[in-house]
Amino acid sequence: MVHVDRSALSSKQATAPWPLHVGNQNRLLQLLPEAERERVLATMKRVETAHGGFVFERNQPISYVDFPLSGVISIVVEMEEGGIAEVGTVGNEGMAGLPLLLGAERSPNTAFYQVPGETMRMSAAAFHKEIAARGRFERTMRLHALCFLNQVSQSTACNRLHAVEQRLCRWILMCHDRVGGEQVHLTQNFLAQMLGVRRASVSVVAATVQKAGFIRYRRGIIDVLDRAGLVESSCECYAVVRKEYERLLH
User: Fold this and answer.
1) Engineering a disulfide at 201: which of 49, 93, 155, 197 sits with its beta carbon 3.0 to 4.6 angstroms away?
2) Does position 103 have pLDDT exceeding 90, yes or no?
């Protein structure tokens, strides 16, 4: 493991539970004034999601926006030859459907539930109407867009510059933050996509982190045993991204 000194967050901040994760709540909706939140919620329906369920598919019209209450959404890029790489994650700190906010009706990317849960689902038409109102909802969505852009940008640099073991620790921490529990469901195939390595390499990398005593990995389930150790062994990217979410969505 390579130790990297991080100044973006204090050790206490980085190892504490993510303050943006509140069980069965969506952070963006909670930031709205009560009257506006009630109006927005009236346009939504609560949906139970399934593993692998799509929010939107590549180059297909985006019909709705999801505001997760639990679970983790993966945003992935699919290559022509069949390769897939994850570029970002969304939990109950955010929403999936940013192309609609930016004026597009479809995306070259795909968004699906890597970890199932529940979501508040809003039609594209209702979303456009709320954005057009230019209220707190619209401003909050734009702050989330900036947070997500920061996450994707940092991930791009991380995938180019940092060791695979550091990147694994970072992604486990990000999923751990969004799940809000000590157990994270991440299949071997998904870990390969997440890390940009061959599936055969995943076992070797996970075994290294497990040998350090930070996790227990078994049949697609990661038990987080030592969060402080994961933080210490990840790169600075985890702290940088987390700090920006906390700064902008406070």
Assistant:
1) 197
2) yes
